[in-house]
Amino acid sequence: MKDKQKTAAKAETKETKKSSLIAKWMLVVTMTIVVSFVIFSIVIYTTVSKQSITEQHDINDNAVTILNGNLEGINQELTVSNVVTSLSPSTKRLLNGGPTIYSNGKSSNSVFSDDLVSSFSNPDLSIVVYNRHNEVVFANGSATPKLSQPKGESKSVEVRRKNKVYLMTYSRVRSTRTGKTTGYIVVQNTMSEYNKLMSQVLRWMIIISIIAIISFTAISYLLVSGVVKPIKEISRVARKVNKDPDSDVRIRELHRNDELEDLALSFNQMLDRMQRYIDQQKEFVSDVSHELRTPVAVIEGHLNMLERWGKDDPEILAESISASLQEADRMKHLIQEMLDLTRAEQINVNYPYEVTNVTEVLRREVSDMQLVHQDFKLQLDMEDLPEDAQIQINHGHLEQLLVILIDNGIKYSTNRKQINISAGVSGKMVMIMVQDFGEGISEEDQKKIFNRFYRVDKARTREKGGNGLGLSIAQKLVKSYNGKISVESAEGQGSQFKLEFPLLSTKEIAELAELKAQKAEKLQSNK
């Protein structure tokens, strides 16, 4: 009992672990979305940053170029006097905080609109000019960036201070006449617009990413739940069927029109097939026990009679032995027919790729039956049947069908001892007809003759040794091979049974042959 409880607990634990499939999928989906947005954000942020930084480099380079253009004409070391003089009186006034225009409203000169004034007026730029002794000879504001002498003509460095990026540009000033270094220019760009822009970009990217991740995670959860829900339903049905094999519970219609719906349909078909096999087994046992009850009772009665007093009477002894043997033979035939019926219901498993030439089987079987029943005339007509007509059926089963129908016609024949067998092709179907001229079958009986153990004339059938299973076996065989069986009959005029099977094309024959060869090869390899 404890072992069973432990097993059940383990099974429940496993089931609980499996129920975390949504969490696992959600984790994968969420991580994928997060990583994707992080990469996307980094790419966008980096692209915007590089573009903006490039513009700031251009501003610094432009300021350096303008200053160099004004200072490279100085041949001596840079000093306050020669630098200020080179930058013009108007510029000096601007640097000292003077007005940009005269009080009379007229422009001073073109220096107010030139690039130099634009550079000095840029609040982000702090421009400092050093001489060769690292002394400041000019500055455009209170900020005085330190000099870092470039190894070459100039260099630009990005510096981070208090979560802000500054762009520092250092350049030599050379005299155009002597080519000697007269001083250095330092341009510090606080890049306020850049820092503001990048801060906003970063903030909006974080906000958008959070919203997108939450939204996509919610959508993913709905999608994943939609996928897992049918799987849970399939698992639930499987557990119920496992507990109760006779359960008729099935997976509900999913209305998905995708692979999961195909899986559910296939699963239901598999369960229906298993249920049919279970029902067949029960029906087989029930039918056999029912039909064997009579012969067993007869044999038991004779044996009891012999045991009590009949064994001393030679006549009673002989009669009992004969009756018992007859009933035993009947039981043997009954069991064989029941086995044939059960096998007929499993044709698609045991004989899925069999192909048979109809003409060859008809000729051989009619000839054999004629030898057995020489008092009957078996007439075969195959004018409308091509010699190479082939259908998907095991040749032994086609022979069995013909034997059942011909033997049935012979049993129920009256005065006219003739059986007509004809075959032909109509459209894409092969037709085989077996006609007798016996007592016929009533309309009411025609609906029942394919039922198990049903006999039109029970007394006469017992005399002939029939068990009422022949036509039931025939119907099962025909249906298993996707065919049809029907009957037309009139009382007192005979009956005609018709078999219909799909005619195989050359392509279909080749495909079935290939599948059969593959199955044989697989079986051989398994051995």
UniProtKB/TrEMBL annotation:
Per the record, membrane topology reads:
Multi-pass membrane protein
The reaction(s) annotated as catalysed by this protein in its Swiss-Prot or TrEMBL entry are: ATP + protein L-histidine = ADP + protein N-phospho-L-histidine
Q: Name one Pfam family in it.
A: HisKA
Keywords, in A-Z order = Kinase, Membrane, Phosphoprotein, Transferase, Transmembrane, Transmembrane helix, Two-component regulatory system
TM annotation in the entry: 21-45, 201-224
Q: What EC number is given for this enzyme?
A: 2.7.13.3
Which GO CC terms are listed, alphabetically? membrane
Where is it localised? Membrane
User: Organism's domain of life?
Assistant: Bacteria
Enzyme class name: transferase
Q: Any idea what this protein is called? A: Signal transduction histidine-protein kinase ArlS
